[in-house]
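USER:
I wish I could look at a protein chain and see how it folds. I am handing you a single protein, as its sequence and its fold in token form. As I understand it, each token names a local backbone shape. I hope you can help me see how the letters and the tokens relate. The protein I mean follows directly.
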Amino acid sequence: LGKNNSINHNIALLHQRLGSNSQAIEYYQQLIENTPNPDYYLILIYLYKLSGQEQTALQMVKQGRLKFPENKDLLFYEINYFAGQKEFDKVLILLPMALKLDEFDKDLNYLAGFSFDSLGESQRAEEYYEKVLNIDPNNYDANYALGLLFLRTYIMESKKTELLFRAKQLLLTAMEIDPNQLKTLQSLTLLYKYSGDQIQLRKINGQK
């Protein structure tokens, strides 16, 4: 491989367009050694994934993030990878860096809530779901998740009627936002069973 980066860039691009992934990888590897660039790392990650080399792609993310720790695309790729693997403890290590870049990103705040929720940290989950709803009150996922969290807390930990009331408000809001979600109806069915509201229970059963 030559050291003329402009030529290497064009050859790498050509191989990529022709679908010659292994040759493209070879040239992009040379490019990141000579002139590191976040875009080259992102292309290599994509090519390794395309070649079925998921772990190598992840290693490339980590290398790229060491060189470009503030790069949003590399950081988000790593977060999404761990979220996809359901490794929520690792997601939560990375999220503060991402939220520093965009603290009002509703997807990031929801993911933080969902990660804490998955790890059984209900209070922290509630905090982040509330943040999402402050940013976007009509967010289906946050209304549903927080409603379900309150319902679950009522059933498993505390029989405080306030929890049931808040769960009902949030789940009904979620149903208004997206009436076609079966999981919302199922959660409301459970809620009405616990509250003893037979009229609403019959209505819900008629909607299924």
